[in-house]
Amino acid sequence: MSESHPPSSARLVVGVSGSPGSLTALVRAADEARRRGAELWPVLAWEPPGGDLAARRSSAAAVLVEDWERLARERLLKALRDVFGGTCSGLPGQALVARGVPGPALIRIADREGDVIVVGAGRRGRLRRALWPSVGRYCLAHAACPVLMVPPSPLQAELEAVHRRNVFRLPLDTGCLEREFDTVPPDA
After folding, report:
1. How far apart are CA 98 and CA 108, in angstroms?
2. What's the CA angle centered on 89, arms 83 and 90, to 5 degrees?
3. Angle, alpha carbons 14-15-18 (nearest 5°)
4. What is the pLDDT of residues 141-171, one digit of tens each?
């Protein structure tokens, strides 16, 4: 007689870093998990500064590993609070802090049938793509499960524009704000 195993529950494994793009991906993953009746697994992958090889060479780094892991856990909890208003998403699943490079860590965790990896796509130029590899591109190239890349929020471009103005100390165009206020109905 053959044994029957209950089917494993589908999981949405979402990469979280605390960036605006990862928070948008977390919101989309939670919505998708509710729609599918799946588990939500937010994952924050971290590495010691300089990578694991540099940490192994330094005896001082061994002492700091616990602090780095604690900081990663705090960053994951802050992201969950920012999105859900608390550390509980109201969905089944588990939040994880994984030591390692983000792309391979997400692929290692999303190893069950029915898993889906969710990552933020972000806005990336050629220089940024050359200097910092994309977690989403890595997952698309190496994952054995579906990968959902979530585009950034439309408000992120506006936020980046304001940030650039602040960095270069450029004045804000208040005329643009006045035109937008003029379009709002008076009773709103």
Report:
1. 10
2. 145
3. 120
4. 999 999 999 988 777 777 777 777 776 666 6
Where would I find the H helices in 37-142? 51-57, 59-84, 102-109, 126-131, 135-142
CB 150 within 8 A of CB 83: no
d(CA 110, CA 83): 22
Distance, CA of 171 to CA of 188 (rounded, Å): 28
Give me the amino acid identity at 82. D
CB 79 within 8 A of CB 29: no
This prediction has a pTM of 0.75
- Residue 43's nearest CA partner among 73, 66, 70, 67 is 73
Which residues does residue 117 pair with via DSSP β-bridges, in sequence order? 13, 147
